[in-house]
Amino acid sequence: MKELFVLPEYIKLDQALKLCGIAESGSMAKDIILDGFVKVNEEVCFMRGKKLREGDKFSIDDEEYIIKFKG
Questions:
Q1: Structural domains in the chain, sorted by start
Q2: Quick one: how many helices (H) and strands (E) in the chain?
Q3: 3-state DSSP call for residue 62?
Q4: Which residues of the chain have pLDDT under 50?
Q5: What Rg do the C-alpha atoms of the chain give, in angstroms?
Q6: pLDDT of residue 71
Q7: Given the DSSP bridges, would you call strands 57-60 and 51-53 parallel, antiparallel or unpaired?
Q8: Contacts of 64 (CB under 8 A, 6+ apart)
Q9: For residues 70 and 48, what is the distance between their CA atoms, to the nearest angstrom?
Q10: Rounded Cα gap, residues 60 and 30, in angstroms
């Protein structure tokens, strides 16, 4: 599992996909999410604006990430 460190209180799912390099753009992140490829906390998530907070996990294929606060 990879850790994704964020500065604010939360990060939106589409932003997280871009930050960790899964998506190159917002539209690509949107397509990945709407196609049902992303799970948040073990459940498929179709909300690109889903707020991820510290301790939340998201995964795509065999890659799993956990949200951690930086600081």
A1: 2-69 (3.10.290.10)
A2: 2, 7
A3: coil
A4: none
A5: 11
A6: 65
A7: unpaired
A8: 1, 2, 57, 58
A9: 22
A10: 13
